[in-house]
């Protein structure tokens, strides 16, 4: 029977896999046009991290305005993008770290520290965007922060979880490397007379 716990050498690829999932969600957030959308029909407003688009109720064409013309728009995009780039670097470092037979645990803890930096940058971008957007962009109708914005937060939550695991992994160094011998429990004949 194969037992694979949290700190198991056979399961070492789970953390890089989760970082890969965070990267995919980050790509969706960066490319998605659903950071802000109209809540119900008629759909007259939508926004991405990069631009805000509106249209009339009868009009089929979107009229878009770049958010890069605003200082807060550049700041939100830059902080989220910097966090994303560092996340990609952490993913590459994690793949390298877990590919080496002799795992460098201080290296792994450093990846965890970088992931906390990623989370900080992404949270800054995800907080700046809705606060300043609702203050400076005129909203039309009922709107909601939508699926692409949610993917940005989901990526950040996964990054925070991975950061904790990367930082705590060295505490289980012996278990991960298989240096601990199995413990066998037995009772002496005096305590178990039925064995005679």
TrEMBL record:
Coiled-coil region list: none
InterPro entries: P53_induced, PMP22/EMP/MP20/Claudin
GO biological process: apoptotic process; cell-cell adhesion
The organism's place on the tree of life at top rank: Eukaryota
Protein localization: Cell junction, Desmosome; Cell membrane; Cytoplasm
Entry similarity comment: Belongs to the TMEM47 family.
Protein name: p53 apoptosis effector related to PMP-22
Native source species: Ardeotis kori
């Amino acid at each position: 029977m194969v037992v694979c716990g949290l700190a198991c050498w056979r399961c070492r690829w789970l953390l890089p896999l989760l970082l890969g999932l965070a990267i995919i969600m980050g790509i969706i957030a960066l490319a998605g046009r659903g950071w802000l959308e109209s809540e119900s029909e008629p759909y007259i407003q939508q926004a991405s991290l990069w631009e805000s688009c509106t249209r009339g109720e009868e009009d089929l064409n979107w009229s878009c305005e770049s958010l890069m013309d605003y200082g807060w728009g550049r700041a939100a995009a830059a902080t989220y993008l910097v966090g994303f780039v560092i996340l990609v670097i952490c993913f590459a470092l994690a793949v390298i770290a877990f590919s080496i037979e002799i795992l460098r645990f201080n290296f792994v803890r450093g990846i965890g520290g970088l992931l906390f930096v990623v989370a900080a940058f992404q949270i800054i971008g995800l907080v700046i965007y809705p606060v300043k957007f609702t203050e400076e962009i005129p909203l039309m109708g009922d709107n909601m922060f939508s699926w692409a914005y949610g993917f940005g937060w989901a990526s950040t939550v996964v990054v925070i979880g991975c950061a904790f695991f990367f930082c705590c992994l060295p505490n289980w160094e012996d278990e991960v490397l298989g240096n601990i011998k199995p413990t066998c429990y037995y009772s002496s004949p005096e305590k178990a007379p039925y064995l005679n």
